[in-house]
Amino acid sequence: MLSPPVRASDPGEVSDASGDRGQDSSTVEKQAMNMHARRAEGRLLKAADRQNGISQSLRQIARVPNLVERKKGVRSYQSHIKSDPWLPILFVLCFVLPTLAGGLYYGLLASDRYVTEAQFAIRPMFGTADKATPDAVGTNAGIPKEMIAQDTLIAQEYILSRPMLEAIEAQLPIRTWFSSDNIDYPSRLNPDKPIEKLLRYWKRRVSVDIESGTGIMTLSVEAFDPDESLAITRAVMDEAERMVNALSIKPRQDAVDESARELKLADERVAAARAAVNALRNREGVLDAVKSNEVTLKTVSELQLSRAKLAIQLAVIQRDLSPEARSVVDLKQQIKDLDSNIARIVRELASIDPDQKRRLSNALTQFEALESKRAYEEKYREQVRLAFERARILAAQKAEAFVPVVPAIRAQSSTEPRRILMTSLITAAAAMVFAAAMFARKLLAH
Questions:
Q1: In terms of pTM, does the model score above 0.90?
Q2: Overall CATH class of domain 111-248+405-416
Q3: Per-residue pLDDT tens over the stretch 122-138
């Protein structure tokens, strides 16, 4: 006898049965694999339909182990929490309290800080950094580029140094400004602290950076009032500029002194050259052998030129007049007189005693040498005088100046502290500390 027909199970019912938390997953899977699926009319299903039904049932049953494993993970975590009571305490100490404290401080207590920023570059006041070459007497026409770069680094170190702080403190009441009761306690300065503590606080409020490519310096000053921040920035720039120029005061003054000594020596050399010329004049009995010779030659040249002009005039008028004409006779007489004067001068030069000629020749040679030396000394003295005047002018003015690229301007709103950023960083750091504490606790437990 055939067994009574079994009603085909609906896939939804199989799914609901597999989702029951009290049914064992392996039993449900076995029943689904072994039962004969039929249609609602009692007829057997085809093999393809039966296979599709079994596949759907298996896919739905496959979800049951995940639920079981999830239940096991939750139970394991709850049991771990119950077995280690320090984890909630570590969570509160390492994460909750730091995050809460950071949020309260930066959200409610932290005072606003106003930042004044200025950008400037050091430039020479005279000459250029590319043409710093010495002249004939050793003075420079500019400032070398290496000195500009060195002064930039010196200014950076000086801004953060104790002498700068002392100079600013002598000009502005910075202790009073930074110790106001309106400032939150962690950011407030204790006015009774020594200068070393004040310098440490100064470095927290003042920063200076240098752009390596251009040498532009960026000065940033934080204060709790925009006017105070602006005043400190301007005072720092003025003091740094004064210090940079003070570095070159002594070299410039030394240049002035050296130029004065060289000018005095040049005056003495000019005086000695002139004295040698005067001594030679007195010894040889002539004022100036060179000038005497020049005068004689010039006289002969002038007489010869006059004779040539008269000879031309005579040749012209003889074309129209007879030789007995009065003008012709006068011109001939003038030419004759000039010839006699020229001959007389030549005879006087030729009739000089050979010893006297030798003396005059020696005197002429000595005069030429002494005159050349005197002219050289006078020219060198003029160059030294110009160098002395230039060194004196340079010593009286600033050698370098702080040329503003971005001038200091009063801040309109506070930019520090960055409340959201700092709170986020504290939260992230607290989370990392808590994770490290849990990891260390787990290692200790094992």
A1: no
A2: alpha beta
A3: 888 765 433 344 444 44
